[in-house]
């Protein structure tokens, strides 16, 4: 709006405005400049441009009257806002000024052209101050306006701010702006920082994600490495433990050995010590006894042993001494021995004791020594041994630690693995969720792109259609213009001919339908050619009407028709001449059990369906892509082998495929293989592959023909295809079965790429084509190659049929026949929602390890497989590309319709399957289709077997019939032989007995022989009867078997109806079975007849055999022969298929020879001759009709131009305007004081009469000139000349008809000559074949041929009789009559000449004599024989054909000529009528113009005389224009005061503390801004209300309320003491207080209101849009609008004003506080004195309160819906408005609203009671403790109350459900019917809970029950109305 205002102010008005309109217009000076531009402010010089307070007050004081007169609201508040430069005030005020100025300009523009003068001169008046003054009513309000002006100035000065403050604010404004700018910069900086922070956070997040990913990968690598290291350590640990154990064992063994050695040495030391001890003891003993104490053992040094011995001897004592010494010694020894023994014992004891002690000490010492020695030994060992010893000790210490650590580590590993598993699963779920979100986002984007593309296509299509519709509309307008022009010109309706011509041009889109633009000189020739072509198109369009005798060529006798014989001939020639199209080699696939194709939308499950059908029914899957790939591979293989492309090899080359898999000798060269392949030629697959490769290399698509040929080739190969053998996965050790070796030269690889050799015991089960055909063209080609169906050629044959001689309908192909496809079924997988296709395409994910494909939505991957989501990849498929998906969907949308239409043309071919369902259901549906087809084919096979059985039974019955006839013949023969023998016997016996010498013996012998012969024949007859009985019985059994076969066939027909093929075969088989059964039955009947005849013959034989005497003429009475018709009944052939040809007359004469069909070349020549004839005829007719149309258009243009020229003549300018202008000047030039003079008035009246007479004289002169021109038009010779030209045009058409007649007869003669000539012998041709050519005379020249002169002369003897209508034609169109006579004479003369004449007897006799002479001469000369005579029947047939054709052509010619004559006379009559009508119309125009001009002059005279008589000047400019008197009101001499603008209605100020609708809206907006949820803290609400009261948003009495009093008043709305306020309840109570009509509504009105809102709710979701809410009429609207309702406005008063209470008091049940005394001493205002809410009429100047109140309610209760559109819950709104001073009444209203029941005691269920307690739901208040009762609690309360009341009587309950009839309020007229219709429904709704057993309660039951009391007090207090304003005073 600002840009619009700036453009208006700166560009249009030139005011110096900037971007800040508030600052520019703050001083008011620019407003003055603006008004001065419009001449609204003449005192611009008194305005001051300064921005001082006094200057601005002066400016606005001067501006206020202008604003007031302009109708723009301007008061002191607005002026102060403008001075303070508040945002938005100046633009709004400027917009109001612009709107009001525009309205004034429109009003002036509307009134400035009301008169003819203003329309002529185009006078304009701009708004001005005087105009504004003039628009007001001329009343005495100047004092009031001046007082108002002074009051405005005083108020403005009093309310204006302090000048110092204004100057200060103006001085500080730049700092304020700088502060605002800095704040904006800070905000922008914050936004930039936030954006940078967001970018950094996103970058950091991406970096962290990358780090996390790398950390995960590093962690995975470390885990793998740690696991490897751990395994190596464990292995090394095991080896070390093994080595340590070995070392430990070695050390222990070494220690054990050392211990043993030490023990051994110790033992030796002990023994050595003991011995030493004993020796020492001995030495000690000897020392005591000896001298020295030592024993010298060794000899002294230097002496020999002998010497020593001697020395020893010398030293020895004497013997006695020795003896004594010995005895003493012995005694001493003995004593010593005894002592020694004693001492030894003692020593032994001591020794033993010592040994024991030593052993104990030794053992301890040994242990200590062992330890010391071990330590010493270890210390002496090497460093390695020491380390090993230390390691051994350490190992021994660490073993336990390692075991404990191992256990701990295993526990930690287990916990870690558990955590890692959980983390992995969590990451898996998170990754899957992320993938799912990405997929959904991508799917949503693609769907949006698809919708956008669809929208673009729809828009393009709509634009195309709009352009077409626009062109059609223009054409329609042109057509309407032509029709209107024709009607205006002729006064008649458009003739049918012109109308059909225009319609033809309209259908063809001919631009010539409209008025053509004048062609440029360079384009004149092209325009002329286009015009001629358009005329030819019109002529061709009229040819059909002419031939069918419709439209303008309608005949009373009906259509003329065509020559049927000629049509039959032309049809036969067209068939014979037609080059038979090449028929493709049809594949023999009818024996395959299943022939299926699966097509449909992308991603509808086609491949899954095809694979499932292939798996279940062992079918071969034909995939077009795989077939193309195989074909291209075969072509490449052939090209690589031979070097020649396969498509360049001639077709004549051998087509046999070479077995490239055969074994080749190792020495065979590559050239031999290439030569063999080249000699064999490429296979069909290789040829097709080469074609496809060439097309793809050229940048095109795969040709449809090649693709269809590949598919058909695959279908052929399906006959020899067998499914691969299934390998049992459990049989692991068994080898897979090997497929049988293929035969040499057998088929190639299968579609899947693996060689599938045919199984010897399994034939082809069929095929299923996956995703083909995709287009209708491919489907047509496929049917052509499968069944030879070629509808295009059939349609071409129909289109090429002759128009003037159409062939019989039976001779043309029936294109609309039900078709039978070469396939059994085409399964169409439908997918209506493209979003599902997009989801199926985009959600596919491939597991590269397993190869399985998952779908993120429909087949999600398992969440317990770690790493699966990470390794899932998008399917690398071209079809998975988003662009490809869009392209496929678009192609499907374009191609599906034609393909579906083509499939629907076939009987039971299209089998739809819903592809949007689960995969199992789709596969099951497809399997059901296949099963049905198999059942149908089984039924067809059963029918075929039944037919075969019936045929066998028929053959058996016919054989039995033949045998029975043979038996009958044998019986009859035996009877005849017996009769003969019997007669011979009787005759012989008579001869023997009657002779002279009778011989009894001979007689007896003769009798015996005859008896034997009779017995033999009788035996034969009896045997024949027995055989006939057997054969008849066998025939009857065969007939019964055939009947059973027919029953079986009929029973199988029902199952075969599923398949069209099966049904056709079954029906044919059943028909054959029926025929065979009928034949068998007839054969059985004949066999039975033969049996009966044989029995009759046998009985006759027995009768004759038993007879003794027979008469001589005795005969056998055989059974009668069966009827010949019965014998030759249909379906029975007793003599095989051959039948003799018998003449139809039964005479046995041979049939006449029939002519042979013509050769194709000859037929083509004749057919070309006929086409030339027909083309010339049709073109001649088209040219003739085009000429007629041009001639008629020329006539129309002539009369249209004539009328236009006459209109110009009537409307040519004259001197009347100048004369009137001169008179006006002279009339108004008379001074005003002289106008009152009687003489002056008389003079003016005289001048007026003179003016009138002069003007009338001019009118008479113009009328005379127009009549003269009209007489000249009447004497014009245009019509006779045009009729003569018209007759010549019809002569040209007659010439075309004559040429056609002659050409048709010549064509008949040529065809008869070609057809019948071969049947005549040479030289014997009849005269009919030698007829001369027929030539039509030249009719356009007018000359009469000499041979026809006598034929058309009625006085001549050879004249041809003419029809009666020719005479009438001759009177008016002599050329056409002459042409008609010539043609009819020619036609009848030709017909007479073609008739064969009677043969002359003399000539016949002469010809016979000549023939006899010629024959004799020929015989005498020995020449050749004479040619045979022609068959007269052939001659008769030839003549009949020629005469029939000629007669029909003559009748057609005569009818056509009569039609042309009638049409010619009709057009002449039309031309005469058009001319007379034009003349009449011209006369009417002249008379009407004369009357109009005279009436205008009389009106002018009347105005002038009235002004003259009144003595006043003429106030307006008067002008005579054409036949009108124009009065220009824009040229006013004395302007009238314009009416004052109507003030905008204002809302009256409500009394007391009540709020207006504006204040309620402001309060609602404040609450919505502060607490959108609906709940607000009491303290905050009190603060906000006090602030609003101080700011003036609330009524003046509210300003005295303190925060404490406001808080106390708001606590009334918090019964649960939650410290929160439901501010909607508070505002609703204020609304009820301000509008008492709301509270006066009763239960019925509120229930009706719910029904009204429900009717407005189009989507039935309980929510209303803003349009629906505005359209719904509320109860207070129509109650205020009722007749008699007071509409008095409350006078404006201050907030302290009081109103008197209305008379009477409100009833207890009245909802409004009418006449009640307030708690603060004030009285409630009477609602009748308050502004009523209603719908006032548009001109009553009353404030429209309903719209304002409904907007308040909309803002109060509307909320955004799921789609973002604001909606209003109307039931919640009504519940909030149910508040009443009587809480009991308010609750009852709430029950009626919740149940939509008009009763005041409605029953509500638990859910409804819950809704009453929480109108907007319990969720928002749960966290605030405002929802103490949940659904279960409410249900418990209701159930408890319901159970406690269950014992009451049903009558009381029923009485509670109905309310008083008068309780309902007034209902709007449009809602009466709905409310009445809803009453029964409401009663049913109220009774439904009780009837269904659901717990329900009424308001009374809930309030007066112990269980519901607490609920009512805590939850239903909202329905007790509370006076918040009074509460603030308490």
From TrEMBL:
In which domain of life is the source organism classified?
Eukaryota
For the region Disordered, what residue ranges are annotated? Answer: 340-364, 721-767, 1121-1155, 1394-1431, 1685-1744, 1850-1870
- Indicate, by first and last residue, each region the UniProt record lists as having compositional bias (Low complexity): 734-757, 1692-1712
Any one GO CC term of this protein is:
cytoplasm
Transmembrane annotation, as ranges:
none
User: Cross-referenced PROSITE patterns, in alphabetical order?
Assistant: ADENYLATE_KINASE (PS00113), CH (PS50021), EF_HAND_1 (PS00018)
Q: Which GO terms describe its molecular function?
A: AMP kinase activity
**Which key words are in the record?**
Calcium, Coiled coil
Among PANTHER family, the record links this protein to: KPL2-RELATED, SPERM FLAGELLAR PROTEIN 2
Name assigned to this protein: Calponin-homology (CH) domain-containing protein
Q: Which organism is it from?
A: Chlamydomonas schloesseri
Q: What is the lineage of its organism?
A: Eukaryota, Viridiplantae, Chlorophyta, core chlorophytes, Chlorophyceae
């Amino acid at each position: 709006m600002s840009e619009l205002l700036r453009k208006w102010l700166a560009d249009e008005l030139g005011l110096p405005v900037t971007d800040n309109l508030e600052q520019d217009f703050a001083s008011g000076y620019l407003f003055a400049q603006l008004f001065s531009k419009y001449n609204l402010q003449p005192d611009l010089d008194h305005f001051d441009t300064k921005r001082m307070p006094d200057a601005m007050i002066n400016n606005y004081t001067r501006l206020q009257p202008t604003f007031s007169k302009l109708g723009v609201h301007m008061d002191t508040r607005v002026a102060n806002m403008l001075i303070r430069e508040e945002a938005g005030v100046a633009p709004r005020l400027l917009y109001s000024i612009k709107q009001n100025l525009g309205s004034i300009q429109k009003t002036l523009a509307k009134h400035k052209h009301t008169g003819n003068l203003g329309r002529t001169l185009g006078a304009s008046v701009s708004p001005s101050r005087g105009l504004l003054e003039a628009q007001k009513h001329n009343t005495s309000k100047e004092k009031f306006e001046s007082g108002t002006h002074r009051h405005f100035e005083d108020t403005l000065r009093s309310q204006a701010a302090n000048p110092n403050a204004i100057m200060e604010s103006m001085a500080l404004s730049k700092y304020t702006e700088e502060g605002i700018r800095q704040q904006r910069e800070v905000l922008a900086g914050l936004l930039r920082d936030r954006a940078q922070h967001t970018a950094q956070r996103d970058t950091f997040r991406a970096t962290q994600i990358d780090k996390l990913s790398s950390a995960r990968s590093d962690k995975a690598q470390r885990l793998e490495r740690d696991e490897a290291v751990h395994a190596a350590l464990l292995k090394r640990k095991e080896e070390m433990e093994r080595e340590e154990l070995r070392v430990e064992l070695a050390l222990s063994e070494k220690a054990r050995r050392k211990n043993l050695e030490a023990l051994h040495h110790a033992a030796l030391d002990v023994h050595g010590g003991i011995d030493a001890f004993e020796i020492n003891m001995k030495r000690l003993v000897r020392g005591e006894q000896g001298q020295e104490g030592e024993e010298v053992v060794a000899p002294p040094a230097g002496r020999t042993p002998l010497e020593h011995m001697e020395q020893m001897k010398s030293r020895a004592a004497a013997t006695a001494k020795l003896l004594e010494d010995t005895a003493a010694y012995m005694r001493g020894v003995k004593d010593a021995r005894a002592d020694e023994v004693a001492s030894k014992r003692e020593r032994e004891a001591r020794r033993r004791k010592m040994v024991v002690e030593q052993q104990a000490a030794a053992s301890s010492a040994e242990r200590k020594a062992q330890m010391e020695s071990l330590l010493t030994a270890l210390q002496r060992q090497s460093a390695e041994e020491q380390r090993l010893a230390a390691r051994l000790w350490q190992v021994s210490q660490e073993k336990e630690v390692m075991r404990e650590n191992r256990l701990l580590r295993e526990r930690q590993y287990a916990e870690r693995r558990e955590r890692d598993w959980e983390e992995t699963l969590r990451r898996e779920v998170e990754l899957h969720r992320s993938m799912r979100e990405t997929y959904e986002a991508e799917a949503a984007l693609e769907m949006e792109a698809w919708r956008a593309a669809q929208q673009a296509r729809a828009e393009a299509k709509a634009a195309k259609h709009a352009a077409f519709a626009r062109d059609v509309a223009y054409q329609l307008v042109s057509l309407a213009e032509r029709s209107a022009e024709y009607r205006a010109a002729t006064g008649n309706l458009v003739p049918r001919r012109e109308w059909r011509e225009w319609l033809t041009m309209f259908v063809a889109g001919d631009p010539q339908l409209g008025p053509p633009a004048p062609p440029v000189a360079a384009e004149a020739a092209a325009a002329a050619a286009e015009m001629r072509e358009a005329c030819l198109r019109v002529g061709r369009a009229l040819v059909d009407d002419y031939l069918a005798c419709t439209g303008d060529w309608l005949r009373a006798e009906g259509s003329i028709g065509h020559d049927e014989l000629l049509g039959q001939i032309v049809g036969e020639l067209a068939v014979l001449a037609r080059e038979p199209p090449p028929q493709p080699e049809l594949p023999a696939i009818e024996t395959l059990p299943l022939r299926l194709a699966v097509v449909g939308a992308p991603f509808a499950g086609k491949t899954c369906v095809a694979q499932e059908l292939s798996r279940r029914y062992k079918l071969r899957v034909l995939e077009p892509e795989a077939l193309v790939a195989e074909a291209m591979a075969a072509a490449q293989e052939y090209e690589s082998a031979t070097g020649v492309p396969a498509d360049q090899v001639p077709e004549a080359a051998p087509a046999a495929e070479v077995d490239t898999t055969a074994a080749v000798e190792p020495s065979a060269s590559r050239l031999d293989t290439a030569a063999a392949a080249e000699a064999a030629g490429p296979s069909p697959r290789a040829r097709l592959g080469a074609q496809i490769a060439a097309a793809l290399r050229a940048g095109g698509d795969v040709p449809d023909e090649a693709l269809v040929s590949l598919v058909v080739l695959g279908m052929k190969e399906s006959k020899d295809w067998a499914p691969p053998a299934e390998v049992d996965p459990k049989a692991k050790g068994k080898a897979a079965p090997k497929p049988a070796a293929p035969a040499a030269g057998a088929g190639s690889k299968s579609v899947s790429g693996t060689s599938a050799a045919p199984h010897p015991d399994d034939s082809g089960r069929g095929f299923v084509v996956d995703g083909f055909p995709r287009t209708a063209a491919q489907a047509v080609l496929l049917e052509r190659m499968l069944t030879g169906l070629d509808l295009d050629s059939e349609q071409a044959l129909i289109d090429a049929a002759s128009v003037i001689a159409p062939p019989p309908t039976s001779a043309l192909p029936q294109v609309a026949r039900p078709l039978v496809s070469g396939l059994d079924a085409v399964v169409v997988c439908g997918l209506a929602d493209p979003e599902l296709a997009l989801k199926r395409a985009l959600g596919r994910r491939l597991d590269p390890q397993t190869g399985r494909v998952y779908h993120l939505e429909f087949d999600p991957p398992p969440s317990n497989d770690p790493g699966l989501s990470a390794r899932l990849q998008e399917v690398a498929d071209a079809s998975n590309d988003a662009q490809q998906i869009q392209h496929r969907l678009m192609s499907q949308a374009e191609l599906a319709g034609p393909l579906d239409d083509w499939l629907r043309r076939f009987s039971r071919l299209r089998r739809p399957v819903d592809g949007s369902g689960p995969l199992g259901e789709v596969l099951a549906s497809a399997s059901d289709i296949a099963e049905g087809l198999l059942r149908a084919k089984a039924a067809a096979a059963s029918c075929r077997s039944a037919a075969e059985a019936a045929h066998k039974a028929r053959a058996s019955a016919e054989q039995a019939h033949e045998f029975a006839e043979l038996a009958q013949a044998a019986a009859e023969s035996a009877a005849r032989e017996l009769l003969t023998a019997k007669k011979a016997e009787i005759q012989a016996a008579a001869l023997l007995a009657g002779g002279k010498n009778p011989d009894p013996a001979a007689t007896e012998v003769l009798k015996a022989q005859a008896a034997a012969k009779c017995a033999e024949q009788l035996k034969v007859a009896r045997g024949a009867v027995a055989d006939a009985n057997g054969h008849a019985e066998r025939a009857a059994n065969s007939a019964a078997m055939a009947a059973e076969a027919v029953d079986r066939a009929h029973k199988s027909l029902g199952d075969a109806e599923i398949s069209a093929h099966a049904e056709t075969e079954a029906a044919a088989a059943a028909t054959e079975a029926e025929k065979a059964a009928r034949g068998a039955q007839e054969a059985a009947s004949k066999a039975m007849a033969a049996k009966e005849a044989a029995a009759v013959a046998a009985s006759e034989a027995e009768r004759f055999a038993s007879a003794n005497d027979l008469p001589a003429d005795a005969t056998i009475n055989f059974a009668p022969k069966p009827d010949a018709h019965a014998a030759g009944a249909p379906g029975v052939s007793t003599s095989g298929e051959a039948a003799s040809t018998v003449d139809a007359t039964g005479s046995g004469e041979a049939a006449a020879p029939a002519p042979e069909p013509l050769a194709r070349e000859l037929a083509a020549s004749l057919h070309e001759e006929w086409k030339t004839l027909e083309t010339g005829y049709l073109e001649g007719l088209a040219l003739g009709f085009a000429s007629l149309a041009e001639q008629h258009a020329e006539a129309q243009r002539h009369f249209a131009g004539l009328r236009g020229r006459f209109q110009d003549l009537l409307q040519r300018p004259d001197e009347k305007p100048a004369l009137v202008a001169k008179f006006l000047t002279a009339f108004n030039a008379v001074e005003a004081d002289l106008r009152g003079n009687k003489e002056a008035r008389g003079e003016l009246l005289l001048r007026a009469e003179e003016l009138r007479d002069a003007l009338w004289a001019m009118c008479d002169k113009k009328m005379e000139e127009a009549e003269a021109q009209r007489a000249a038009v009447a004497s014009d010779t245009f019509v006779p000349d045009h009729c003569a030209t018209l007759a010549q045009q019809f002569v040209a058409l007659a010439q075309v008809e004559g040429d056609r007649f002659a050409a048709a007869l010549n064509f008949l003669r040529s065809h008869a000559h070609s057809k019948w000539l071969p049947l005549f012998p040479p030289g014997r041709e009849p005269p009919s074949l030698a007829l001369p050519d027929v030539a039509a005379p030249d009719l356009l020249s007018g000359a009469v041929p000499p041979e026809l002169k006598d034929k058309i002369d009625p006085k001549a003897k050879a004249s041809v009789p003419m029809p009666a209508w020719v005479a009438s034609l001759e009177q008016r169109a002599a050329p056409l009559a002459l042409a008609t006579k010539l043609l009819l004479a020619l036609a009848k003369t030709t017909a007479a000449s073609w008739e064969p004449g009677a043969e002359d007897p003399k000539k016949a006799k002469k010809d016979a004599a000549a023939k006899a002479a010629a024959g004799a001469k020929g015989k005498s000369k020995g020449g050749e024989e004479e040619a045979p005579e022609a068959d007269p029947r052939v001659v008769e047939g030839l003549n009949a054909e020629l005469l029939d054709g000629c007669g029909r052509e003559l009748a057609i010619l005569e009818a056509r000529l009569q039609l042309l004559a009638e049409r010619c006379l009709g057009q002449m009559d039309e031309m005469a009528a058009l001319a007379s009508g034009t003349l009449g119309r011209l006369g009417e125009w002249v008379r009407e113009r004369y009357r109009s001009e005279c009436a205008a002059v009389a009106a002018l005279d009347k105005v002038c005389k009235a002004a003259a008589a009144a003595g006043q000047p003429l106030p307006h400019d008067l002008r005579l224009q054409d036949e009108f008197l124009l009065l220009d009101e824009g040229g006013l001499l004395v302007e009238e005061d314009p009416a004052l603008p109507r003030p905008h209605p204002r809302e009256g100020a409500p009394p007391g503390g009540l709020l207006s609708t504006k204040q309620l809206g402001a309060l609602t907006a404040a609450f919505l801004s502060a607490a959108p949820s609906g709940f607000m803290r009491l303290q905050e609400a009190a603060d906000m209300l006090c602030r609003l009261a101080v700011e003036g948003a609330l009524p003046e009495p509210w300003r005295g309320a303190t925060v404490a009093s406001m808080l106390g008043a708001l606590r009334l709305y918090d019964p649960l003491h939650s410290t929160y306020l439901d501010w909607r309840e508070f505002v609703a109570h204020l609304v009820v207080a301000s509008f008492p009509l709301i509270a006066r509504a009763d239960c019925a009105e509120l229930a009706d209101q719910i029904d009204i809102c429900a009717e407005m709710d189009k989507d039935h979701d309980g929510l209303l849009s803003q349009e629906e809410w505005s359209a719904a009429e509320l109860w207070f609207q129509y109650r205020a609008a009722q007749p008699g309702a007071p509409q008095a406005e409350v006078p404006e008063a201050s907030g302290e004003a009081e109103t008197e209470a209305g008379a009477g008091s409100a009833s207890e049940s009245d909802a409004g506080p009418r006449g009640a005394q307030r708690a603060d001493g004030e009285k409630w205002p009477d609602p009748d004195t308050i502004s009523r809410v209603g719908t006032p009429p548009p001109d009553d100047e009353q404030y429209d309160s309903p719209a304002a109140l409904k907007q308040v309610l909309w803002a109060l209760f509307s909320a955004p819906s799921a789609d973002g559109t604001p909606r209003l819950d109307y039931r919640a709104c009504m519940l909030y408005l149910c508040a009443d001073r009587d809480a009991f009444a308010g609750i009852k209203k709430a029950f009626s609203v919740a149940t939509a029941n008009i009763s005041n005691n409605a029953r509500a269920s638990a859910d409804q009671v819950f809704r009453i307690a929480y109108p907007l739901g319990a969720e928002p208040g749960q966290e605030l403790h405002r929802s103490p009762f949940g659904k279960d609690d409410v249900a418990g309360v209701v159930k408890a109350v319901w159970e406690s009341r269950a014992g009451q009587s049903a009558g009381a309950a029923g009485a509670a459900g109905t309310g008083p009839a008068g309780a309902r309020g007034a209902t709007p007229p449009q809602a009466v019917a709905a409310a009445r219709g809803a009453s029964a429904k409401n009663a049913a709704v109220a009774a439904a809970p009780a009837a269904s057993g659901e717990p329900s309660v009424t308001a009374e039951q809930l309030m007066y029950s112990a269980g519901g009391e607490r609920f009512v007090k805590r939850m239903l207090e909202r329905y007790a109305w509370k006076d918040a304003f009074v509460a603030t005073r308490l």
